[in-house]
Amino acid sequence: MLDGVPTPNPATAPQAEPVDGRSFPAKAKGARPVFFADGGATDAVLAIVTSLAAEVWALRERVTTLETVLAAGGTIPASAVEAHRPSPAEAERRAAEAAAFTARVFRVFEEMREEVLAGETPGGYEALVQRAYDEI
Amino acid sequence: MATTPTRTHPNQRAHELLPTPDHDEAARQGFVQALKAHIATRVSPGVREVYEHRAAPRWAADHGGAEPADRHEIRWALQGDVYYQLWSSVRRSSQHLLWASVSDSVTRQAGELANRAEATAGRAGGSLRLDPDLEIPWYNAEVDIHCMPGGYRGEYAPGDVAAGALYDQGVFVYAMGQMGPLNDDYGQSVVANYLRAQHPGFAPRRILDVGCTVGNATLPYVDAFPDAEVHAIDLGAPVLRYAHARAEALGRAVHFSQQNAERTDFPDGHFDLIVSHIVLHEMSPAALRRMLAECHRLLAPGGLMIHADFPGYAGVDPLTQAMIDWDTWNNHEPLWGPMRSMDLSAEAAGAGFGAGAVSEEIVPTTRILQTGKQARQGQLWLLVGRR
Lengths: 136, 387
Description:
- The complex is a heterodimer.
- By secondary structure, chain A is mainly α.
- Helices cover 59% and strands 0% of the residues of chain A.
- Chain B is globular and about 65 Å long.
- In chain B, strand 3, helix 9 (237-249) and strand 4 form a beta-alpha-beta unit.
- Chain B is of the alpha/beta class.
- Residues 368-374 of chain B have low confidence and may be disordered.
C-alpha cells in the first residue's frame, strides 16, 4: 500500500536542502531573523552559546547517570548508561536540576530585569564615579 | 488505553514508529524543555518590564509624547532594546536547538524507521494515497513552518518518514508533554469537551481530518466513532507515510491521502464531520477562505465543521498581541498574525454556512497525564459551522 518516492514537482518551490556531508537540512527553509544590528554576529554567538549550554547539560546528565549506576551496582557493564531508565521520581528530580542549571546559565536576563526595574543605567554608574572624583 | 511509557519521557506513550533518543539526545531534549520553561517564566516577563520602563517612554519621547498605538508600533519600540534583542535571539536559538535535538536523533534512525513503517502495512485496514504531482501552495513551500527543518514535505531518502518522526517527537518535546502521551489532546478535547457535551447523539458516517500531519489528533475520532470511516489529508508525503504507519501500528484504520484542503477530490456532501487541529494558523488568508468553502461543499446536510485553533487578536490588549505576534515575525509562523487578524466567523458565514450556522466556542483541553492526574488545564478555541 506504500507508494514509491514521488518525483520532484518543478512547479513547486524547492525544499530545504542540506549542505555536503549532511543527510538532512540543518535548518528550516526561510531566512533566520537578525536581532542585533551587527550583521548577525551576536545572534550567531548566542546560537553557539545556547548549543554549548545543551552540550554541557548533556555531559552533566551523563555524569549523573554514571554516578547513579555506580552507586547502584559497583561495576559497570558497557551498556549501563544507555540501558539506564530513570524512574518517574528520578525524572522529576532531573527536570528540577535542569531548571536550576538553566537559571544559572541565563542569569544575565534576571540581572538586566533588576537593572530595568531599579532604573540603573551605565550613565548613572559613571555619575557615581564622577561624584567620588568630585569629592577629591 | 494501555500505556507503555517511552524510555526517556515518562509521560509519553511508546509506539513502533517513535524514534528512540539515546542518552545524550534525551539529555539535550530535556535541556531544551528546561530552557523553554525558563525563558517563559523568568525571561519573557522582563520584556513587559522593559517595554513599560524603557521602550515605551523612549518611543513617547521620540513621538511627541504619544505611546505606541498598536502591536506593530510596540514591536518597533522594542526592537532597539538590547534586552528584547537578547531575549529574541536566545528564544530563536532555543527553537533551532529544539529541532536539532530531535532531528539528529531522527536522522540517526531514519533507515530503521522507514523499515518499521513498511512493516506495519495492512495491519489495521487503513490506506495511503500519495500524489507526486500535488502542487505545494506558496505558504507551505516557501518557509518551513515553526522552524522545522525540511517542513512537512522535505524528502531525503526513498520511503522517507523522517519528517513525520521529527514532528511526532518534536511536538512532544515542544509541548513538554502537555499534548498528551500520544500528542492527541486536541482531538481528545474536541471529542470529549465539545462533541460529547454539545452534540451527544451525533453519529457521523464519514469523518475528514484536514491538515492531519502525523494523524496524532485523528486517532481519537476512530475511537469515538468506531462505525465511521475516517479520512485524513495533508500536503506532505513523508508525514503521511509516517501517519499511515503510525495509525496501523496503533491499530486504528484511517484513510490518508495527499491533498490540498483548498480543493480536494472528494464528492459533494461526502462527510458528516470535518475537523482540523491547529491548522488554520498555518494557512494563508485566501487559502483559509477557500478551505472553508471546500468544507461547506464536502459536508452533508446535518454535518459539522470544527476547526480547533487559537482565538483572534480582537479584544486582546496591544502589548499581549505584540508578545503573541513575536512568533509571526521571528519564529517561522508567518500566517499566525494574519489568521488572528481575520474575523473567521464572518469568513465561515461568507463561505456558505451563513451567519446563523456559525459559532466560536471555547472548550477546556483534557490533558490527562499518564498518572491519571489532570494536568494544567488549557483552552481550545473552536470555529464551528453547521450544515
